[in-house]
Amino acid sequence: MRLSSASLAAGLVLGARYVAGTTQSVTGADSNPGYLAVPVGTIPRTQHSEKRSQKAIQTTLENKDFFYAAQIGIGTPPQNITVLIDTGSSELWVNPDCSTVRAQEQLQCDQFGQYDPSQSRTPAIGPFGNEEIKFGDATNRATQTSVMIEYYCDKLAFGSLSILNQTFGVVQESERQSQGILGLAPDLQAGFNGEKPYSLVLNTMAEQGVIASRVFSLDLRHSDVKTGALIYGGLDRSKFMGTLQKVPIIKGLAGEARLAVSLDTVGITLSTSETNRRLQGDNSNVMLDSGTTISRLQEQVAMPILSALNAQPDGDGYFQIPCQSQNLPGSVNFGFGGVIVRVPFKDFIINVGDPLTCYAGIALTEGQQILGDTVLRAGYFVFDWDNEAVHIAQAADCGSPDIVTVGKGVNAVPSVRGNCGAAPGTPTQTISAGGGASSSSSSSSSVRPVTTTYTVTVCPAFDPNCKTGVVMTATAEAKASETSEAGGTGESGKTSSNSSKESSSGSGRYGVVWSLLAVLCSVSMGNVIIALL
Length: 533
Fold this sequence. Notes:
By secondary structure, this protein is mainly beta. It has two domains: 5-232 and 506-510, Cathepsin D, subunit A, domain 1 (Beta Barrel); 236-476, Acid Proteases (Cathepsin D, subunit A, domain 1, Beta Barrel), CATH 2.40.70. It is built from six helices and 31 strands. Strand 20 and strand 21 form a beta hairpin. It is globular, with a radius of gyration of 23 Å. Residues 68-393 form the Peptidase A1 domain.
């Protein structure tokens, strides 16, 4: 698919909002022993017969070039609908207005399916309230879209897994949205209290005993791989290397509930050298958002990376990079506590159909920083709502699934090692930048660009496109006015001055609140279907 820079901005940044209303409980489920595995790529189908056991539930994620989607079923019989998997928003909604999308998206929008409450024998409950939801970077109007939804309750299925009377939205009006969304983030104001403003999908799964705790893992995989995996209530040791690193979830930049963490360092690896910048304060607050394709960082965080890649602004808010840079064996690096997620240039640099011009995987924002698919696909992330933590490792793919079911408790997510070997080494050089980054003395000096010619002799496990024996040339344009703790130089950051306290992805003045009429969707507790999709 050939896409312009305008295409990159069209509806790719998504987010959460708050809905005022009465708590709704869901306490029933169908019964079915064990769980069922639907293949992800070549994963074999497996079945278990242990009744009422709480198993990991795996959903196939389909890489739709610019977003990751999964199929759900709503109603009885299930009406199959493809939805975007979004860790930047909290609600499930379906039925976008396909007539408002671009012509090249209309067929795809129609193919994603629609829900008709009148065709469900459950029966459906609703409509019982409405809300307007606006998505996008609050500092970039080009990214903003909206939907108006009415609320319903009906049966929700993930393959053979079913939960009853799940509340979700059905679109009445939408603007430039080609697919529905399954939000897996906490509500902006209610936070991880999954009962407010109503029981969200992950909370309902735990309430009905489908999973032991509110945990899911995300495996987006490389950009040229068409499928990934979403596992509810578990993790897959065959999809990461090194040990999972536990990182606390923090509030968003405006104090709202997000799946946000502290980003300790950002850096870049070119040839045999590596440079990382240490961050703190507003510059370190990043939201992990699978509903965003292009990551968004504040200028002083992003520009050293963009400069090192010789990226040039295109006039529309994005940065162009020569496509041959995709073939370099280096990476862009993001440090969280004791783990560094290294994004190979092949994943970080986006090819939009022009053989000469590609785009960097980051754009600039003045608001909430977001790590989107261009970064998340290089890591393995286990989100733990109950303990408000994210467990992170370098993504990999090494053999048959080795799924670990997550139980309950403070240490429910085990600090296990992946089956794909040791994680890549630690940084060889660390830069401490001023103004919002960790403080260290700065000095000005003229530093010439460094050009290195080298032969690739060893390929890291995290870069599937690396080839040994290839002679490469890389030029790193070093900047003045920054002192390296290890003797390197780079560009100093500007003093942080967050000009907008409106979080991206739909908060602030873009998170319009509409009333949700009080309704209680409840059924009696029964046995549960436990399914591994």
